[in-house]
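request received
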Amino acid sequence: MNPKITGAVARRVLTQLRRDHRTLAMMLVLPCLLVSLLWWMFDRNEQVFDRLGPPLLAVFPFIVMFLVTSVTTLRERSSGTLERLLSMPMAKLDLLLGYAIAFGVVALVQALLAVSLTVGLLGLEVAGPLWALAVVAVLDAILGTTLGLLVSAFAETEFQAVQFMPALVIPQILLCGLFVPRSALPDVLDNVSNVLPLSYAVDAMRQLQRLEALDSDFGLDIAVIAGFVVAAVALGAATLRRRTG
Amino acid sequence: MMNSMDAATTSVVEVSGLRVVRGGRVVLPGLSTTVPAGQITGLLGPSGCGKTTLMRCIVGVQKTQGGSVRVLGEESGSPALRRRVGYMTQAPSVYDDLTVRENLRFFASVLGAPGARSDTVIDTVGLGSSVDSLAGRLSGGERSRVSLAVAMLSEPAVMVLDEPTVGLDPVLRRQLWGTFAELARAGATIIVSSHVMDEAARCDRLMLMRDGELIADDEPASLLAHTGAHDIEAAFLALVDQEARP
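response:
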């Protein structure tokens, strides 16, 4: 691994994103629009917005970043530049980390925008500290990025990458406790939800809604999400192959 | 036979019994050859004959099913070779949404080459006037020149160029072949593929490929003398006919 090369990859990806206005808008503006839509839907019932807002602040950035990252990274494969880079003195982790850092920067901006809008303009109220709300939202956007990086290693085309969205993301949304509290799920599904990262993001958000002082459960949720982030990057690097068929 | 003796002592690439199967099809059934140092070796043959696969094996990005490929005394694709082997793929492997300069600067930092080297190679491929254009806005020929410039960045000892002159105008083609000759004179070993037989005359040595096998491996002049043909295309046909006859 070489920090200079990691940095060069991150800078390059950010330069490319800066030129791609549509993708940038999708990443920065779309979650804000979706949260606004939710607020409008429950215009006459603010309690529902207060209840659904925080979990969805975790879910929307996650979905958007997953989708954009998995497709963008695949362009590297289809353009032949991935093969070229892997024939050069570049560690696989340099490439993955470079991407994770670049999209992580975007994820940070995106989550901060969405949280500021939701709390500032739309009047979302939570019991816990706002910085913690921002931390969970940012971490979740980064989780979406790193899972997107991971699945892009298993896809040959952009079309295949998009297919991972319903397969890997929608079950997480269904089981994360958004619709039914996880404790009320049948045992088998409850156990399944225990190994899905989005469950921990929604758990953390639920805590923020209820408790003024954060306890060790919150810390544990954050640690589990961070663990998934690290594992996705490591696994993504391990699945890259310098030699292909 | 003097030639093969010389080649054995100064060969840069040694391929032996190389077998590659892609998608159930045997592309290289068991190829053996050597590439001499400091020369331009042309790899010629119809498309689908295995040129690209052989080049990918030399660079070390192709999965193989048998045999060995050694480059500069190391196993192909080994970490020690990643700065010493320059590779230009058939389709230009550059970033369309970066400018020419940004492309070169990025690859230079990956290779650990000094930034000034980017400007040198941009001039070498004649793209000095387009440094700030996005690669995606360039013509096909210009984009492959960006790709060629990337392959030259680390001043590699071995350059593997897959059809570097496709779609270029004759003046530019002559200019690039001039560059290859200069690099070879400076000691670089250049392996260049083409399906245009008239480029063969510019090579020091030719490998003619058909259906994954080498049907000739010789200097252009002796290839012509040996087959009695007046150009390389005719020599190729003569060799194919010879094989067909029992």
